[in-house]
Amino acid sequence: MTAAFTSATADKAARPSRRRTLAGWFLLPATAVLVVFFFYPLAAIVWQSFTQPSYGVGHYLALLNDGVSTTVLLRTLRTALVVSTCTLFIAYPFAYAMTKVAPRARGVLMLLVLLPFWTSVMARNYAWYLLEQRDGVIERLFSAIGFDGVVLLGTVTGVTVAMVQVMLPFMVLPLYSSMSSIDRRLLDAAVSLGASPYRALRTVYLPLSLPGVVSGCSLVFIMTLGFFVTPALLGSPQESLISQVIQTRVSSLLDFPGGGALGTVLLVVTLVLLFAVSRISRPTAGLSKVVDGA
Amino acid sequence: MNKSGHGITISSVTKVFGGLQRPAVDNVSLTIAPGEFMTFLGPSGSGKTTMLSMIAGITSLTTGSICVDGQDISPLKPHKRNLGVVFQQYALFPHMSVAKNIAYPLQQRGMAKKDIAAKVDEALELVHLRDCADRLPRQLSGGQQQRVALARAVVYQPRALLMDEPLGALDKRLRDQLQREIARMHRELGMTFIFVTHDQHEALTLSDRIAVFNEGRIEQVGTPAELYEHPATLFVAQFLGESNTFSGPDRTGSVVVVRPERLDLHPHGSSIPPGHNSLEATVTNIVYVGNHHQVGLHFADNTQGTAMRLAGTPVPAMPGETVTVSWHPDHQAVVPDPAAAAAETEPSGQSDTPRLTQPAI
């Protein structure tokens, strides 16, 4: 009996490590693909930006001093901020409604979110092209109510509007998943304690939905920073965003090290932001665990 | 101390949920005295929780009124009612510390910061959780969380404390401990308490009075002793404690209920005390339960029953032997037979009601 018992525990102790080795083998294909097609090219781009045609930080200094790159970077950051804010304000009530309605209606709302998600990005962007172009639907709509000459095509506003639509699912889904885990009885409790329904939402629901807000916003913000198709199609070279500039450098000017330097800057900015967000949301990250556990 | 209690009057309250035929609460009227500990007892689906949440304002009334100190509160929004509510799943705010949770209702009332601190301290003292003030709810045990919920629900001196199965999620030891704490809080605060439970022991130990709910109606209201000794209906007799049921002497649709501990057992053929009712039965089994023996009885008409013999009192028969069972008429309750009543109104209904009846007497 004792022998059986000890051998059982020994077996238990041995199993996890064997399992871990096995898991390591399962990860091999993915790791190989990442190394060959992602880490190596990435390292090569960063390396080139410091080494060609000569060793040094010349490309980075040039970016600082050419008067364009910093403007483009700031414009990109501003656009990403505006896009995430607008998306948040549209998605928050939408996700909230999804948690409130009957299951059937929830299915319909979910479909509304996912339908554009399943549609090709090119199709959606060309749809916006048609809407925003000169004498398009949007211009005619605005001139009908007395505002002539509203052409969004070729403006940062036009790009922003389209990006908000494209990014909506990435905001709605994390918000919905965070909101649906909130125990609505907490609102009953808050109201029974003397909070008006509005105050109950603000003091209980809103803080508990913050993990979803943080993850939705960082997802949208970071994806917007590097977005290429929408600004390339709907924006203009005069008001270009960073991905367009990188593309121009690499494919038109064949300035691989310069483009690499810009790309590296974008990557660093993104990583710094991600790090900052993870720092800020640490108490809320712990919080989301509580909400899940409740 | 009892001055702080407020009376609650429930008048002809009915609740019909959308799309349902049978009302969840059906024409319930009840007067709860200031400072009283009133328990709503009943099985799940009996309407007790719906009644409580109508008092709290979480559920709206279909018809009727609920008054606190004579003022009709049914048109008031829940946050204007000034009642304390404790939920089964604690419902503590997970993003706030214990102290912040307790301070929440005081903040909603616009109390000054330093007064809040003093009140929170007092409430923490009341539930013996001073050391936990800065912890988050998830760092506390279930029992501690429910004590925080209790402190939060009484800190603003609400007009009454409503508790919806507050001990339901706890294990037995914690439940007993918290029962004592709730009883102590009731004594110390002198507040009107309304306590919802399906647990008869909780109801019997804690309450001043119990309202027994069944199918949306109140079957009987009374002190624990009244309900136990003199159940008005078969449902009350069977829901509260164990009982032996025999069909009535006149066979006109009434049932005689006798508690197991009121049954005397005599060796077959011996004389019974004068004035007692008696029956013959076969002992089916004898179970030793520590402080008493539980004696299974099989009556002549194939119905089963139980008698209780305190430890030290011998059981006058072995399993398989016949005994004479007797009891004093003072210890029996005569209640209407629901099967007979149902047969009059709707012949097919209620046929599954256990008929532990025994003719004669």
Question: What features would you describe in this structure?
Answer:
The complex is a heterodimer of chains A (294) and B (361). Chain A folds into 2 domains: 1-51; 67-293, MetI-like (MetI-like fold, Orthogonal Bundle), CATH 1.10.3720. In chain A, 82% of the residues lie in helices and 0% in strands. Chain A has helices spanning 2-51, 58-65, 69-100, 103-118, 121-132, 137-144, 156-180, 185-192, 197-225, 229-234, 242-252, 256-280, 282-293. In chain A, helix 8 (185-192) packs across helix 9, helix 11 packs antiparallel against helix 12 (256-280) and helix 12 (256-280) packs across helix 13. Helices cover 25% and strands 29% of the residues of chain B. Chain B contains 9 helices and 18 strands. In chain B, a hairpin with a 4-residue loop joins strand 15 and strand 16. By secondary structure, chain B is α+β, with helices and mostly antiparallel strands. Chain B folds into 2 domains: 2-229, P-loop containing nucleotide triphosphate hydrolases (Rossmann fold); 254-345, Beta Barrel (OB fold (Dihydrolipoamide Acetyltransferase, E2P)). Classes of the chains: A mainly alpha (294), B alpha+beta (361). The A-B interface holds A 183, 185-186, 188-197, 199-200, 203-204, 207-208, 287, 290-291, 293-294 and B 56-58, 77-79, 81-85, 87, 89, 91-95, 104-105, 108-109, 136-138, 152-153, 156.
